[in-house]
Amino acid sequence: MNLSPLHLCLLFSSALFCVGLIGALSRGNSILVLLGVELMLNAGNINLIAFWRFGPAPAEGTGVLFVLFAIAIAAAEAAVGLALVIAVHRHQRNIRLQEANHLRG
Amino acid sequence: MSLAFLLIAFLTVATAAVAMALRNLVRSALLLGASWAGVAAFYLWAGAEFLAFAQVLVYVGAISMVVLFAVLLTRPSRDEGAVSPASAGRLLPALIAGGSVLGVLVGAIVGSPLRTAAKPPLAFTVRELGLQLMGPHAASLVVVGALLTVALLGAVVIAAPGRPGDREDPR
To answer: Which of A104, B9, B52, B149 could make a disulfide contact with B44, Cβ separation 3.0–4.6 Å?
Structure first.
């Protein structure tokens, strides 16, 4: 079996994605769930860069531009998510997901 | 395949896995910062220098600091940041789901004949990136700027305490 660098990069991003997925599904703490989602976003960015670098038709900078915009969106998502965590904590005094089951404080 | 890539990949995945398994949230956040730095090292290795710097600035610098602040603000006062470990009722289905997703992905990747470029692409300099951003992609740049502004304003509104009349519940 002969694995090209593109294969290895994709395997790397798959491993990172699954670590994030298992973390997001198994932990009850909402901050850790958010961090798992961030790990999955990073794995997607690694995929884009791998195809940009090793792909058959390396267009000029498409992958870099995609990842740049994805990082900006991820930053906005992290800010809003952590603000939601703080708001839930102010109303309920804990941030466990099982107990955050109503929206009005 | 270069040894550097394998080292970067191993360190990134290992720090992420340990961070997801730890009980202490502060240590988890710091280890995830190390994992994001590993992703930045991957970008450097792949030849996307600007992205590596953006990753360090945004993830290692900003997001991990925001996460640390959130951890410290929401920490229960008695136990020092330790959260309960994942219960077996949640851990087992999560492991099954993640393992099966990993199996499907690895099988699909190994089994597919991916064509790779014969020669490495030309270096994509920051100058060309700036020209692309300001030329064909100027509209999406403006949209992302507007999105960031709206999202950060919304985050402030959500996280700020309400009016003095409707303060929070008593402990």
So the answer is: B52
In a domain, B26, yes or no: yes
In a 13 Å sphere around the CA of B129, the CA atoms on its Cβ side amount to 17
The answer to whether the predicted template modeling score (pTM) of the entire model surpasses 0.90 is no
Q: Write the pLDDT tens digit of every residue in B107-160.
A: 998 888 877 765 565 667 888 888 888 988 899 999 999 999 999 999 999 888
Chain A residues lying within 8 Å of B17, measured CB to CB:
19
> Which neighbouring-strand residues pair with A52?
none
Q: Indicate whether B65 belongs to any domain.
A: yes
Q: Measured between beta carbons, which residues in chain A are less than 8 angstroms from residue B171?
A: 93
Given a cut of 70, is residue B166 above it in pLDDT?
no
Q: Check if B84 contacts A (Cβ < 8 Å).
A: yes
d(CA B21, CA B25): 10
